[in-house]
Amino acid sequence: MVQKACIFDLDGVITDTAHYHFLAWQRLAHSLGLPFDEDDNHRLKGVGRMESLDYILAKGTTAYSMDERLALAQQKNEDYKTLIGGITPADILPGIVEALDWLKANNWRIGLASASRNAPQVLASLEITGAFDYVADAGAIPKGKPAPDIFLDVARAFGLPSSQCLGVEDAASGVAAIKAADMFAAGIGDADILAQADIVLPSPEGLVEKVLKPF
Ligand code: BG6
Ligand code: MG
């Protein structure tokens, strides 16, 4: 049998941390007198920490030095870490454990391609670190989503061609990254926002039957 790999995004796919990123960014934006709404949140899904900060700061006219920007990013991250402090395995989204079990039983490689530097901590809190054969190090990959680099990094680690890899994403930038990597893209969420995906499910429920088995 030909080896296949499933490469997951984390925030918004495996657990609903996308909401905590939203709350922490909104709090920072409002503290600076800048607007931040659900539309901004969709744009920032999958986007790295400093790029997200710069998107928010561009809504105002104040120029910030590098040190000030780093301090603001750190402030958001401290807030975010407080918000995710109470995460437990009960926060794994429905359908994910079933998908991980099915992948393992069918000898797929299982990878993580999250832009978050907090990913190892979140996986540990969810108690699913051991389910992953490879976790990409976001800090070591300069070009973030929508660049394909992080998905290609996982494929390279598995020694697999893109044609044997399937990516799962909740962000438009993430789906774009999967397609730029020439992989099959399963979107989780709104079909209009994730129009570039090969298939879109409203939630991870149904991944096994509708996405994994047919691939
Ligand atoms: C992505 C999230 O997974 O990680 C983004 O979708 C977030 O919202 C990015 O900004 C970076 O995360 P972190 O935890 O390194 O600040
Ligand atoms: Mg995501």
UniProtKB/TrEMBL annotation:
The record marks S114, K145 as: Important for catalytic activity and assists the phosphoryl transfer reaction to Asp8 by balancing charge and orienting the reacting groups. InterPro entries: B-phosphoglucomutase_hydrolase (IPR010976), Beta-PGM (IPR010972), Beta-PGM-like (IPR051600), HAD-like_sf (IPR036412), HAD-SF_hydro_IA (IPR006439), HAD_sf (IPR023214), PGP-like_dom2 (IPR023198). One of its GO terms (molecular function) is beta-phosphoglucomutase activity. GO terms for biological process: carbohydrate metabolic process. Its cofactor is Mg(2+). The active site is at D9, D11. It comes from the Bacteria. Its EC number is 5.4.2.6. The keyword Phosphoprotein applies. The keyword Transmembrane does not apply. Mg(2+) binds at D9, D11, E169, D170. SUPFAM superfamilies: HAD-like. It catalyses: beta-D-glucose 1-phosphate = beta-D-glucose 6-phosphate. Keywords: Carbohydrate metabolism, Isomerase, Magnesium, Metal-binding, Phosphoprotein. Binds 2 magnesium ions per subunit. Substrate binds at residues 9-11, 25, 44-49, 52, 76, 114-118, 145. PANTHER family: 6-PHOSPHOGLUCONATE PHOSPHATASE (PTHR46193), HEXITOL PHOSPHATASE B (PTHR46193:SF18). Belongs to the HAD-like hydrolase superfamily. CbbY/CbbZ/Gph/YieH family. This is Beta-phosphoglucomutase. It comes from Kordiimonas lacus. The lineage of its organism: Bacteria, Pseudomonadati, Pseudomonadota, Alphaproteobacteria, Kordiimonadales.
